[in-house]
Write a structure and sequence with these properties.
Number of strands: 2
Number of domains: 1
Largest sheet: 2 strands, antiparallel
Order of helices and strands: HHHHEEH
Helix content: 55-70%
Oligomer: single chain
Strand order of the largest sheet: 1-2
CATH class: Mainly Alpha
Length: about 90
């Protein structure tokens, strides 16, 4: 994973998170926690299919990761260092 990210790339990721209330809520919910999609659904009241799509999109941007990828059921997700950095910067700018 890239540790050195340009300011432009970081703001691009922040925009990617902010443009979707679903992605924003999921990033907020995953701060300092490892959660299953069903737990994210319970905490955010976002329907499971939207949680799955948002997790896939966030994972593609390397903002979240699945910590037990080979598991069929009970997959756990958390933010990556890049995701934490982007979310922290976004919150500071609000």
């Amino acid at each position: 994973m890239k540790n050195d990210i340009s300011e432009d790339e970081l703001w691009s990721l922040i925009g990617f998170i902010k443009i979707s209330s679903t992605r924003f809520k999921i990033m907020q919910t995953l701060q300092d926690e490892h959660l299953m999609p069903s737990e994210i659904t319970q905490r955010t009241e976002i329907i499971p299919s939207q949680v799955s799509i948002a997790l896939r999109d966030l994972k593609a941007k390397k903002l979240v990761k699945c910590v037990n990828e080979k598991t069929k059921k009970g997959r756990m997700y958390c933010t990556t260092p890049l995701g934490e950095k982007a979310f922290k910067k976004m919150i500071e700018s609000i």
